[in-house]
Design a protein that fits this description.
Among the domains are: 101 residues, conserved putative lor/sdh protein from methanococcus maripaludis s2 fold; 76 residues, Helix Hairpins (Orthogonal Bundle). Helix content is 28%, strand content 40%. The chain contains four helices and 22 strands. The strands form three sheets. The chain has a six-stranded antiparallel beta barrel. The chain is elongated and about 160 Å long. The N terminus is likely disordered.
Length: 392
């Protein structure tokens, strides 16, 4: 009799355990529902009555052209900047200037030791005196023989020899004079002369150094007439013209500059260099300063402006907008909705500030979502807020 009682008690315990488990599951589900986030696309008012998502919209206003703006980086350069050196080799005797010194055109910057050149000059001067004396003697000899030839005392051969000796003596005078002149030129070239007014920006060699021909001793940079070099794209270069004036931003200040040259070749960055002349430069403006050139030009392209925040990124780098369409009259908008949001693919043509110039499968005059687009999914019911004004 004990065995049936045990089976009956076990069955009651199983049913009770099952009921407890069901009640526990129901409590957990209720708790999850209570703590779950709001349904996607649904707003809640204070009295907990759900209404449709409210979005801001803007009308698509197509235009045939738009103004493209670009910023290009360049730098200020001195119109003239030279690494100056001697044409001759020799020992650097004196450097008359230092880095930062302002020099004028024609100032002596450095000297080579000219001791040997001075000795050669004296030697050449003495040789010139001797050759001139020999030339005078040869000229007098020829003159006497020519007189004797008239009275038939001297032979024709003697006259020819005297003539040749005279010409050779005169040629020797010319040779020695040329040698002396070359020595004087070398002495002159032993002085390093400033080619223009400017500032010494670098001193490369000190006194006592043996320099070779063409070796740089000083670098001098012109102070005035600063110019700007900016690399722009080839398309932008074609739109620019020599003589145009543009604004430059240098160290937070705005300057006016005129295009003086557009170089015909691309540089290593595949850009085209343009040269601009500054109208006025401040005392703080120096060669090497970074310059920002702002350029704008008209582009013939049909499209409309839209806030960048309204764009949604899609697959493979594509972009889209949400367009709102009125709900059909026979359908009542759920949760107070008056429109339906649909997704349209668009192409971004240009970006300016916080606006994007786009084109795509949106008709002129259609309204697209500008605020709240990040909460939407295709075909979602929405309510409209006041439309915003598009960029002109």
């Amino acid at each position: 009799m004990a065995e049936p009682m045990i089976r009956k008690t076990s069955g009651r315990l199983s049913i009770k355990a099952l009921l407890v488990a069901l009640l526990f599951i129901a409590a957990v589900v209720s708790l999850m529902i209570a703590n779950s986030p709001k349904p996607f696309g649904i707003d809640f008012v204070h009295d907990e009555i759900p209404v449709a998502q409210v979005v801001g919209v803007q009308k698509a206003a197509y235009q045939e052209t738009y103004r493209m703006k670009r910023e290009f980086i360049g730098q200020i350069e001195a119109r003239q900047s030279s690494a100056i050196g001697f044409e001759l080799s020799g020992i650097l005797k004196r450097v008359a200037v230092d880095e930062g010194d302002v020099v004028k055109a024609g100032d002596i910057l450095a000297d080579l030791d000219t001791t040997r050149l001075a000795a050669r000059r004296q030697e050449a001067q003495a040789a010139l005196v001797r050759s001139k004396a020999e030339a005078r003697l040869a000229h007098l000899t020829f003159k006497r023989i020519a007189e004797l030839r008239k009275v038939d005392v001297a032979t024709a051969q003697e006259k020819d020899d005297a003539l040749a000796a005279r010409d050779m003596a005169q040629a020797m005078v010319d040779v020695v004079a040329a040698q002396l002149q070359r020595i004087l030129v070398d002495i002159e070239k032993s002085r390093l002369i400033a080619p223009f007014e400017g500032t010494v920006i670098r001193r490369l060699i000190d006194e006592g150094t043996v320099v070779s021909p063409g070796q740089s001793v000083l670098e001098v940079q012109q102070n005035d007439h600063l110019e700007v070099r900016v690399g722009v794209t080839a398309i932008m270069a074609e739109a620019l013209r020599i003589g145009e004036q543009h604004e430059l931003l240098i160290s937070g200040q705005t300057f006016r500059a005129t295009i003086t040259s557009i170089l015909p070749l691309r540089n290593r960055n595949r850009t085209v260099d343009i040269i601009l002349k500054l109208h006025h430069s401040a005392a703080s403006t120096r060669p090497g300063d970074v310059v920002r050139l702002l350029l704008a030009y008209e582009v013939t392209q049909r499209g409309f402006w839209a806030p960048i925040s309204s764009l949604r990124e899609g697959r493979r780098g594509l972009w889209s907008l949400y367009v709102v369409e009125a709900s059909p009259e026979e359908q009542s908008g759920p949760l107070g909705a008056t429109h339906v949001a649909s997704r349209r693919m668009v192409e971004v043509l240009d970006i300016s500030d916080d606006q994007a110039f786009i084109s795509g499968s949106i008709d002129d005059g259609e309204h697209f979502v500008t605020r709240g687009a990040h909460k939407l999914v295709p075909d979602q019911p929405v309510r409209l807020n006041a439309p915003s004004n598009p960029k002109s």
